[in-house]
Amino acid sequence: MSDCLFCKIVAGEIPARITYEDELLLAFHDIAPKADTHLLVIPKQHIENLNDLSADDAELMSHLMLKLPVIARQQQLNGFRTIANTGKDSGQEVFHMHFHILGGEQLPGF
Ligand code: 5GP
Ligand code: ZN
């Protein structure tokens, strides 16, 4: 999507502090971290959010879920919180699906 912020990061048009990349995924530091370590993990493919998924995305989503702890461990996170805001009511601001990884400190209760 041409006007999507995260698609522009995937395309290298907007810089990001990338920590992990493979053929399907990108992980990078959030620009406004809400914990000592705050990463965003996104599919390279533009998918709006979890509501946008179909059965065709099963392989991608399985890959993404399995990579979350790998990406967290690369940052020396033993425990971490994963958040995926879905839709305006949830507070989603960027409509390219992303999983927040928060850690590096004792997080407050949720
Ligand atoms: P949401 O509220 O949609 O779940 O999360 C969007 C996240 O994207 C926010 O935590 C926000 O700080 C982050 N963000 C917004 N613009 C940029 C940007 O240009 N670069 C990076 N790395 N993160 C961004
Ligand atoms: Zn996008």
Our count of helices gives 2
Question: Based on the structure given, which CATH architecture is correct?
Answer: 2-Layer Sandwich
Mean pLDDT: 97
Q: What is the 3D shape?
A: globular
CATH class: Alpha Beta
Quaternary organisation:
single chain
Most strands sheet: 5 strands, antiparallel
Q: What class, by secondary structure content?
A: alpha+beta
CATH topology name, in short, is HIT family, subunit A
Strand content: 15-25%
Distance linking N and C termini:
33 Å
Q: Major sheet: order of its strands?
A: 1-2-3-5-4
CATH superfamily: HIT-like
Please provide the ordered H/E string of secondary-structure elements. HEEEHEE
Helix content: 10-25%
The tally of structural domains comes to 1
Give a list of the ligands.
guanosine-5'-monophosphate, zinc ion
Uncertain residue segments: none
The tally of beta strands, per DSSP, is: 5
Task: Explain what the structure shows.
There is one protein chain. With 110 residues, this protein is α+β, with helices and mostly antiparallel strands. It has one domain: HIT family, subunit A (2-Layer Sandwich). Helix content is 21%, strand content 23%. The chain contains 2 helices and 5 strands. It has helices at residues 5-10, 58-74, and strands at 18-21, 25-29, 37-43, 80-83, 99-103. It has a 5-stranded antiparallel sheet with strand order 1-2-3-5-4, covered by helices on one side. A hairpin with a 3-residue loop joins β1 and β2 (25-29). Residues 1, 4, 6-7, 46, 96 line the site of zinc ion.
